[in-house]
Amino acid sequence: MSKPTLPIGIFDSGLGGLSILSEIHRQLPKENIIYFADSGNAPYGEKSPENIIEFSIKNTDFLLSKGCKLIVVACNTATTNAIHILREKFNVPFIGIEPAIKPAAIKTTTKQIGILATKGTLSSELFAQNLKRMSQKTNIIEVVGKGIVEAIENNTVDTLHFHKALQSQLSPFINSNIDHLVLGCSHYPLITNNLKKIFNKNVKIIDSGFAVAKQTKNILDYHKLLNNDETHKSTIDIYHNEASEIALKHVLNQLNIDNAIIH
Q1: What secondary structure, in 3-state letters, does 201-249 show?
Q2: What is the DSSP letter of 41?
Q3: What are the structural domain ranges in the chain?
Q4: For residues 118 and 44, is the Cβ–Cβ distance under 8 A?
Q5: Is there a common fold for 8-97+209-262 and 101-206?
Q6: Residue 81 backbone phi and psi in degrees, to 5
Q7: How far apart are CA 213 and CA 104, in angstroms?
Q8: How far is CA 161 from CA 42, 157, 191, in A?
Q9: CB–CB of 8/69 below 8 Å?
Q10: pLDDT tens, residue order, the chain (263 aa)
Q11: Catalytic-labelled residue, pool 42, 75, 83, 203
Q12: Active site residue 185
């Protein structure tokens, strides 16, 4: 039986899931968090479903070895390809992350919304199922992100070369008069400033961080695992394999996460 004082576990194919961690920490400031960045295998978006499942199982094993009471799969590609396997294999609650298409489809006025995601997410069965639930009156333009995860992992998103490459691959969105852009990868909120320079103010950028943190709170509450100790000072521990220390510290600074211990 898990205890409320045990940590929340989070994993991603690198540093992108730190955007999810920051929102969970904001909504659940009393919770201890252990994060694993599988940077050595990033990006997952170009990997086979079999590889993604293998990595996800290993990541979960690691977090459970640290005593985590709940696992957040802070990766769209891992969620769409592996979370059903993880729920069958492990006896802990899992929270996944999916592109926030529904709120964009509800709020759009141009009936044109864009989704920027990895190949692994856009080609998954779960994504296809979610797409079928959307209104036929809304046109969804899909673009597979190229080189974005790598740029974040290598801390090169502020270069002119990256900006030009990003602007070029986003041209289908610009030409389609979208008014909402859905970020379908947990890495992508980390380039929000880059995106704002490309799109006008009428394009609303949506990610899944708030919804994932809210669902995490709901599931912890349901299982009576919320840490309600008023005297507790929360901890954030970050583990990684082959992550750039410079890029990691840059992302932590960008997200105002100043109390993390890097292992």
Answers
A1: CCCEEECCHHHHHHHHHHHHHHCCCCCCCCCCCCCEEEEECCCCHHHHH
A2: G
A3: 8-97+209-262, 101-206
A4: yes
A5: yes
A6: -105, -25
A7: 19
A8: 21, 9, 14
A9: yes
A10: 578 999 999 999 999 999 999 999 999 999 999 999 999 998 888 899 999 999 999 999 999 999 999 999 999 889 989 999 999 999 999 999 988 888 888 889 999 999 999 887 887 777 777 777 665 678 889 999 999 999 999 999 999 999 999 999 999 998 888 999 999 999 999 999 999 999 988 899 999 999 999 999 999 999 999 998 777 788 999 999 988 889 999 999 999 998 899 99
A11: 75
A12: yes
- Tallying the residues shown for the chain, one arrives at 263
CATH class of 101-206: alpha beta
Q: What is the CATH number of domain 8-97+209-262?
A: 3.40.50.1860
Q: Does 68 participate in catalysis according to the annotation?
A: no
Among all chains, which residue has been given the structure tokens 């590889």?
Answer: 51
C-alpha span between 23 and 42 (Å, rounded) = 22
Q: CA 21: distance to chain centroid?
A: 9
Q: What does the block give as tokens for 155?
A: 């801390």
**In this structure, are residues 90 and 228 in contact, taking their beta carbons and an 8 Å threshold?**
no
> How many Cβ atoms from other residues are within 10 Å of residue 247's Cβ?
21
Question: Among residues 105, 166, 185, 252, which one is catalytic?
Answer: 185
**Two tokens at 117?**
């995601």
Exposure string (b/e) for 204-221, b if CB count within 10 Å is 16 or more? bbbbbbebbbebbbebbe
In this structure, what token pair is assigned to residue 154? 């290598």
Alpha carbons 46 and 261: distance in angstroms, whole number: 30
